[in-house]
Every structure is written in structure tokens, then in C-alpha cells.
């Protein structure tokens, strides 16, 4: 199997992998990175979203060959307890979840949005999260959290 | 405010599990261990229970470690369902902690020579007059908690509660935003193997033969487990298990399908099946006002999928004749009981331990996959085996919420006042949870070589809120009624508990008919409801909602408003909802305004979160959701075929809590669904002038209703 090189959460990574295997499989099964969750396996729910070169993308149907030389960020790479991403702080402040299974994918979609649009409107936040499903009905809290993070980032 | 008198009897969960040490323990380093029998399913229960314990013990909530339920150590509290966790676990913990505090203070009094009434507790430190002090942890060795709870303990007065009743950040949320493993799906165990299940794509088909050759050749393949019609594969990685499953599927032959009903004539199907009929309630009129006319209406609700964002998952590991199971089941003891039947093992040989999964909203495949894992783990050679269902199987083999047909006949006098009321329900049972019958309810149990019959769903008794009949008895003071439930004795589509059981359908029907009668009378629908209610808490939530939504806003073209109310199970939370919708070709719900009364709201923000979530989920059910099938298979097996509400579709939701700290708390998780469903339907009428009586309310249904009306 070929060695595929990419950046993962800021660190250089070289993985000996079947080029057709999904990035999600490699993250979870090989690298023990469990922030991205399996939801449907068809890119329809957003639970497995990771940032690839700054864009939120489903990792469940993303073959490893397409990841070569790319910059991949998972929820683990957004921030830590000591140095949280403003979105992570805001999701805690707004208590923006119920079960939380969809949250890591939503954090990634939101982080990608704030990278390209640091001061989105509410409608833009909703549109950016439309590829992420939440079954518990925590949508409005999450939208508030993203807007809170955006305003925090603007003033810092 | 007066001190509460000693509880005359113990809370039900304490009666069943009286040993204090099974609930509360003091561990080293200033920690308190609280061990409830209820489980976290995203509803925030673990935090609310920690609040109650922190309050009664006077310790900071950060000292409390909440233990996940396990049959090895936890009190048996049955199942986490029915919005009963605060009622059952909360009351038990409040009482147990009060008694623990009392016992420790008695010991502190002896040690310090200070009367117990003069002792105070500050974050676990016990202070007496003259600056003498000790702590829970200093005394923990002296005070045994291996005593059964008594009725003598007094919980704190409401005025002295500093934590319960105040919004508190949930204890599980930081892990979830920092992606620290908390879900069973993310649980790492040494030597973990992975299993996948082979199940038919055709409804009710049985596995006839299986060519295993290709699967054996897959790198990483460990074993195929086959037992009659049960078949699955174990491999050393998820990827390998998936590849092996694909190979296995190619080698499988299946029997013909068991026919499914016509999805476009659910009422016709439900009303043509053999049924068990129960009269749920009757009320005979004191006066005999004459009926001038009768309004007859039929309502239907489709099968609804639980559709958790995570497919169901479990881990099992055998050690000789004993097995350990990690599961997101809502009832660890109930699951263990069914596993014991299937495995023919004493229950003591099985440990079932809870780990969080995604929100389940009722009985999904969590229990089924646990048996799958236990059976596949037999081939694991003592290594743990993790089984995860596919999205397809989650949307087709897991139980669904039951479809319902509901007929209401309202007899009206000459002034269109209600003088008689008949409500009849046709539906499969709404519960087939494990652990409650002599035969197992788990899917694999009906597939193995000596199969158990597939359990036909039943309804919980009226004392537990009923099932298909839940919320079918009006809370309104109508002069006469007969409520009848027809439970199907056939079950071509598998059903079991989905959030609210029959309440969503029944409240939709009742609140729609009432709205229609109010309109017939030219009476404001809120005034009409208030006039028929005798319960002040009911009236208060309706008035609060009306005030908050500035009822009734001025009429604008293309916008409609609707109201509805229910008290969940007629014994739980009161909830009123007003929906504001925009209607043209499609319905868009713009705003939902709700007021709720749960008695004492332990974590007010948690209550709001549950009501918001319930309101949004109900909106999704009403506008989008319907399990689809043809005559041989469930076809809504992906998110494309089973769409749910997305971020851009979600309405603004505004919730008011009526706090009643003097009234015992009840759960909030299922209060909003019925009222929101009916409020949206009533708003559709306000906006478009047509009544849609079949859910979901889609463009096609609106067009059909318009054609019928013209």
C-alpha cells in the first residue's frame, strides 16, 4: 500500500493506506482520532465533517488518495481545554446540544464558515450548517453559539 | 415558608433499591459518588441529578462524580423513559442524600459535642459553634451507609435549595466539544474486534443459504457467526468487517418477503386488522342535552423513525461463561433479562454497563445490537467485539413509532356546544421493550435457529400513562365521553416506543377537533379552551403562551397562527404552544411560542433545552417525516429518503417556564410534541382555510385537502 502524506491537526502525517479507504476509517480505525463520527457513510448527515484545506467536508466517503498533501483538521485540532477555540467556548456557554453526537461535525462546519466569513448573518450560519443534521433539536442554540463565537473573535 | 414534613412513604425507586450506599458514597480526596439507575440520553438527566445531590448534601457540584448505570453496581430503576427520571431517580436521590446527611450529622454531633441542629455543612465541611469542624470524608469511615433508607429523613426546604432550581451547565458538554471519547462509538478497548450484521433488505425475509467463501478471503477476516437466520461477520478492523459483509451479502439467498401494507392507505390497513379492543374511559353526562349534530373526523399519523444520528452500537466480551456488555440501552437490567433468556445463562453471569449513545427518542436498535454483539463476540476468542449497525439497517430494522388512525365524533347541541365525545384509536402497540415479558424482544432472538416469536407490541397500562391511548382522555371538562383503543394483533411493520407513544397523535386529533368547533362557534380558540378547563395550571400555561405570543396577532395574508395544549399523560408536564406559520405552496413554521409547567424545574435551562428540542423535533415530524415502504421493503433507508428538518427550516422557539418550586418535579422531554403538532395544523387552517388531518402536512396533503374542501 502506498504511503499517503498529509497534515493532520498541524502535524505532518504519513499513513500507509489503501488509497480507496475513507479518511474517516483511517482517522478512527488507524489513528485513534474519534472526534469525527460515523453517521451514515454517504455524506448526508455531517457527523463526520473535517476541514480539508479550510473547507468542511464529509470524511466518510472521502478516499485517502484525495487527501494527499492536504491540510486536515478535526475537532481535536480546533482547540483544547486550556486553549479552546471560541466556538468550543461558545457551545459550552450556550449549552448548545442535547446528545452531542452531531456536535463535532457542526463545530467543523462552523469553524470553516468563520474562516471564510468572520461575521456571518444568522441566515448565513444556518445555510452553512444545512449539511449537518441534528436530531435532538438543538439547532437554535448552536446558531446562537456560532454567532457568539463570531462576535467574540471580532472583538479579540 | 414552612418546613416540609417527613415523607410519609419512600420514593418508588428507593423502595425498590433501599440501600443508601447503592446511591451515595464518599470517596477519597473530597469526592462524592452518586450512582443513579437512570441513564444519560442527551436529556441532561445526569446533571439534574447531580444538582439534587449537591443541594441535599451541601457540596459543590464539581465534587460529584456521576456513575454510569451498570447491573454490577447500580440501583435497578427499570428503563429511562416516559419523562419519569426526575420523578423517580430525582426523588429517590433527594431522599437518600437527605438521609445520608442526617446520619453523618448525627456522627458529627457526637464527635464535636455539638447538637445536630447547630451544625452546618459548607461544601462537605461540617461546622459547629466555636469553630469546631469535621467533614463528610473524615466521618465516612465511621458512618456506614449500608443501611436501608427510612421514612424519617427530611429533605431541605425549598428556600434552602441553592443548586436545584437554578440553571446549571451540563456536566457532559465539555467532553463533547473537546471530542474527548464519551460515546460508546468512540470507546477504545484493548484488542477490539469489529462486527457487522447481515440482515435482509426485504421485509421479513429469512436467510436460506449462505456462501461464506468470499468473505473468508478478505484480509483481516476473523469469523462468520451463523445461527439459523442470524448471520454476522467479525474482522480485525471496521473497514475489513465492511468488506467481508459485502462479500457475505453476495453469497446470501433469502426467502420471499412478508407483505407490507399500502403506505397510502394506512387508515384502511389499521382498521382492517384483527384487534384487541379496550374501553379506556367513559364519562356519562349528568344532564341530557340533545345533540343537534355530530362532527366526525379522522386523523392519521404515519410510522415515524427514531432516526438517531448515530447508528446503534454495542461492545461485548466473553470470559468463559460470563459476558460483559457495553450498551446505550435505556434499561440495563431489562436488557440483561432478555440476554439471559436468549443465552440461557443466569443473569449474574451477565454484566450490562451503560455508555452514552446518540439521542434515541425511545426504543431504537440499541438493545438489538447488544444481542448482536454478544452473539458475534462468541467468535472473538475472549477479545471484545464492537458491532455497529449500518444506516440502512437503522432505518429499516429498528422499531418505528406506530402509525395511528384516530376517529373523533363530537356531538354538538344547537349552539355548537359539545354534549358528547367519542374517540377511537387504531394502532399497533407502542411498546415492545426488552425485559418485560417471558420471551425476549430482541431482533436476533427471532432469527436464531430455535427462534422466539417476534413480540407483537403492547401498550403500557393506563396507570403508566397508556400507550396508543396516551393522552386520549380529554383534560377538558366535557359532559360525556367514550374513549376506545383498538390494538392491532398483527405487526407487519415493527413498532415500539417512540417519544410520547400515542400522545402526539391523540393530542393532534383532540386539539384539531376543538379548534374546528371553536371556529364553528366563532369563538376564539384560546377562550374556548379556557372555558372548558378546570385546572388552573392548565389555564396558566395557555394564558402565558397567549401573552408571550401577543395572541392574537393581526391577520396578515400568507401567515397563520394556531394554538394547542396538553398535559403530558394527563399527569405530567403542562404545555401550551402557539405556532406562527407561513403558507403558500409549502408550509414554513416561523415561530413557536411555548409555556411549560413541570412543577419544580431542577435545571431551568435544561427544561428549556428539552422543550425547544421537542418543539423542533415535532415540527420535523409534522412537516417531513414518514417511514416509506412498498409492498416488500422499507424504502426510506437513507437521509435522502427520510428527510428531517434542517437548520434553515428550523423555526424560532421561545419558551417560558412557570416555576412552581413547591410542586414535585416532572419530566419535560415529551411535553411539547403533541401541542406543537396540533398548533401547526391549526395554524395551517388559519392561514389556508383547510384542515389537513393526515400527517405529515406536505404540499401534496394540502392540495388534497383543498380539493376536498372545494
From TrEMBL, chain A:
Gene3D superfamilies: 3.10.20.30, [2Fe-2S]-binding domain
The keyword Glycosyltransferase is annotated on this UniProt entry: no
UniProt keyword terms in alphabetical order: 2Fe-2S, Iron, Iron-sulfur, Metal-binding, Oxidoreductase
Pfam families per the UniProt record, alphabetical: Fer2 (PF00111), Fer2_2 (PF01799)
Coiled-coil ranges from the UniProt annotation: none
GO MF annotation: an example: metal ion binding
Domain of life according to the entry: Bacteria
Record domain 2Fe-2S ferredoxin-type: where: 2-78
InterPro entries listed in its UniProt record: 2Fe-2S-bd, 2Fe-2S-bd_dom_sf, 2Fe-2S_ferredoxin-like_sf, 2Fe-2S_ferredoxin-type, 2Fe2S_fd_BS, Beta-grasp_dom_sf, Diverse_Oxidoreductases
Name by which UniProt lists this protein: (2Fe-2S)-binding protein
Organism of this sequence: Bradyrhizobium betae
Automatic annotation (TrEMBL), chain B:
InterPro entries named in the record: Ald_Oxase/Xan_DH_a/b, AldOxase/xan_DH_MoCoBD1, AldOxase/xan_DH_MoCoBD2, AldOxase/xan_DH_Mopterin-bd_sf, N-heterocyclic_Hydroxylase, OxRdtase_Mopterin-bd_su_IorB
Domain Aldehyde oxidase/xanthine dehydrogenase a/b hammerhead: 178-261
Domain of life the protein comes from: Bacteria
GO molecular function: oxidoreductase activity
PANTHER family: ALDEHYDE DEHYDROGENASE (PTHR47495), BLL3820 PROTEIN (PTHR47495:SF1)
Name used for this protein in its record: Oxidoreductase
Source organism (scientific name): Bradyrhizobium betae
Taxonomic lineage: Bacteria, Pseudomonadati, Pseudomonadota, Alphaproteobacteria, Hyphomicrobiales
